[in-house]
Give the backbone structure.
Amino acid sequence: MSSLGSERDLIERIRRRLPAAPPSLVVPPGDDAAVVIPERGAFQVLTTDAVVEGIHFDRRFSTLADVGYRAMAVNASDIAAMGGTPSLALLSFLLPAATSVEDVDALLDGILEMAAEAKLAVAGGNLSRSPGPLVVDVAMTGYVRPRRILTRGGGRPGDALYVTGSLGAAAAGLEWLRETGDEAALSEEMAECLRRHRRPKARLRAGSLLGRNRAATACMDLSDGLADAVRQIAESSGTGATVDAGAVPIHPGAATWFTSRGRDPLLSAVAGGDDYELLVTVPRKAAGRLRGVQRASRGLAFTRVGELTRESDVVLVRDGRRQPMPGGFSHF
Amino acid sequence: MSSLGSERDLIERIRRRLPAAPPSLVVPPGDDAAVVIPERGAFQVLTTDAVVEGIHFDRRFSTLADVGYRAMAVNASDIAAMGGTPSLALLSFLLPAATSVEDVDALLDGILEMAAEAKLAVAGGNLSRSPGPLVVDVAMTGYVRPRRILTRGGGRPGDALYVTGSLGAAAAGLEWLRETGDEAALSEEMAECLRRHRRPKARLRAGSLLGRNRAATACMDLSDGLADAVRQIAESSGTGATVDAGAVPIHPGAATWFTSRGRDPLLSAVAGGDDYELLVTVPRKAAGRLRGVQRASRGLAFTRVGELTRESDVVLVRDGRRQPMPGGFSHF
């Protein structure tokens, strides 16, 4: 393990690992600030999200490459949820005294792997010592076409609610790591839950297609779970919502895990956080456009789980009985 | 003192305090990400900088309003040093368990005061718990006209080196707080040093004027001190530099303080960090344009302290003797 040395040496080491800057990045990392040519005819999307040791990750359960990957993915997911395409990241590292050069290399491994997958460039960043936890705080920019922006508030009564992928895997994976930890005895389904916790897959292609194709009226990601997302879209859109419990796509590993712990798989899956799936509202007349998005989304499932309603309640319908939607997940 | 409550309540409390979003911010804080209409005909400037408890501030010496102000000012300074104008900030707060609602209000007091001074809007942010220090991590965007960008690398041999304002005050103020602390016995000069430590004044007007008027070929801010900045501009520009010790504008309070501690005021002032003054290189033919910037800068002093040279050494000339420039300040 090598000590970090001076800030300048460490910045130089990081810069050497960055791929060549895209031509739009006219002043790349290394000056007081980065300068970029904006995408023509587009609006800009801005977001920030931090990954904090002891709050969002535990070094016993995730490698630092996982941490770096995750810090990028959670930001990109927010941009996709606006119908946008992520383009540039600013990295702010807070490094405890015990951090080694190898630790920084590992963070960058994950960051650059996710950046390559999403065609994102690192525009700049900042290094600081931390007297406490390791923190990777990312700010990300992206672009979206005007009139293609997917806010949370665009839904209308009668719009169908669709969710991508499947739910509960990340929450189940984290619980498994905390309670079990013997990865040799892992089923393939459970291994997938661990991967979803460690390396969340942001639905970037689906988000930008939903924006471009006008298939959706509202969209948000499920970072705090389906229950929270349905409530937020309904509130922002001035509607209520019903969710059909039987239709919710629960990840098979999560269903097995929650059942084995004597818990209700559905309630655990809709309340669990860190599913970076998308919840979208689709008007009846856009059903064909949604099928187009589905076909272009490389096998990603879109499941109809309910609809927005004129009444303001947010309701879970289960075996014909209506009950209030359970509470969501809170990272805070 | 009131406890923070839920993330949602705290976000709502913060949002209620934000001034109305400018029309360019088409999706203001509260959705997955913010959406903004880019400035027409401009490039975008991006930067990030964190202010960390125990590293960059000490609650005994600064209020949380000072901390918020400072977190904004240090980012805005980086944008000004590119010849740009800051426009939007993303705020990432890491909050220890003992943080109260009043603490968050105080941070916002300073943030919004600086934002109002600089006509900056808050575009969004993120809240997280911290198992360690309080952190305010800001990412900031601004704009700059193409061909008006001031990098560190644009200087040429023969360009004069100018510095704004005066040096050493922030470093002297911090030392005074650490070693003395009886503010009743404070001279007016020393009180100014404390203010410079607590509420650094970024040279925003000067930076954007220097870019627009083509008065400068290179620019950077003095966050790590004059010695460091001269070395970095010379290195990036492929030149050397000489600095005339007798010309360096040392803040009178800093001169008194460093002398009283038996230290060399010049060496202390050029090595001290946290002067958010600007170092600029000015070609001979732009001397008239620099006078124009000076006149428009509301009394801000521009002092010629040396020049860039063909030889690669970075030299301090003192009483006719040449010596290597001393080392700079490191926050890391």
Q: What stands out?
A: Chain B is about 35% helix and 25% strand. Chain B has a mean pLDDT of 95.
